[in-house]
What we know:
Largest sheet of chain A: 6 strands, antiparallel
Radius of gyration of chain B: 16 Å
CATH topology of chain B: Rossmann fold
CATH architecture of chain A: 2-Layer Sandwich
Structural class of chain A: alpha+beta
CATH class of chain B: Alpha Beta
CATH superfamily of chain A: Dynein light chain 2a, cytoplasmic
Number of domains of chain A: 1
Largest interface: A-B, 44 and 55 residues
Oligomer: heterodimer
CATH architecture of chain B: 3-Layer(aba) Sandwich
Amino acid sequence: MITRVVEGWVEEPLKRFVDDARVVLALMLHPSGQVMAQHGFARAMDVMSACALAAAIHASASELGRQLDGKPFSGIHQAGKDRQLFLAEAETAQGSYIFVTVFDAESSLGLVRLYFEELRAGLASAAPALEESSEPILAEHFESELNRNLAALFGRA
Amino acid sequence: MSLVNYATREITCKIVYYGPGRSGKTTNLHYIYGQVPEDRKGKMVSLATQTDRTLFFDFLPLDLGSISGFTTKFQLYTVPGQVYYQTTRKLVLQGADGVVFVADSQARQLDENIESFQDLHANLADQGVDARAIPLVIQYNKQDLPKDLILGEPELRDAINFRGVPDFSADALHGPGVFETLRGISELVLKRLSTPGAK
């Protein structure tokens, strides 16, 4: 299985978690739904859908916790027939991230929670301080490329 | 915050379609989904009620292809328009890189449009986002309806577009204006990435 990460500092703690906790899928994302790292997904587009749904679960559960209990729920566990899902938040110097993992009979909730605490600590120590780049990312005149790509996407090229 | 992966040279941007209930936000996404080839889109996710009203959001990931050497991906979201889904709208709006405000052109919906536009500004402010700085375009949808039922572009512009942002007339059900709207917001969002210090 391939592990992909957006930023290098995430890779080592995530790989260690996947190996130790023996999970099937793992996702780390920004609360807005943007993927930061993934393990076990074959298609990039499926990762995006999973992130959108995970961000929604996290946001709605946090809000529900705030409304019912005065503070957001710290983690969620949902057991399916063959697979189980665990979702929780990790704080780093780069900000908060949502972590979601799916596991089967090869692992257990206890094991996942145990290694999640290690992952949380690993991410916190690996994250570099937040640095804003002042360099432009795209070329100044990108419009022609954008228009060509969109036209192709809509069959108008 | 557009997510930039320098290692794989990928950019991911979040675009939120906002507007009053039944203005055509989901219809925009359905039209886009129907036009785009399979290999350039993901599954469209709709969390809807039994009567197909958006309950939480619709989500459509799109691969725009390469721009300035970066593979550019857009995540399109809609919010539920009904007034009582206020909390959900706030959650979906979180981290948006750009907003498409879909207005319903029907004359009797003018107050709902204005209320929803004010709601958008309030929710952005709640999240510490300067509503004047975030990329925003307005779409006047349902311009295909009989002329005696709708307001024209000049009247809608007068009532809603006081900021003078790019705006587009549309018939999202059949397609006119959908592409132009997406192009408009894409340009504004990506322009921020081509400006020094604007990420």
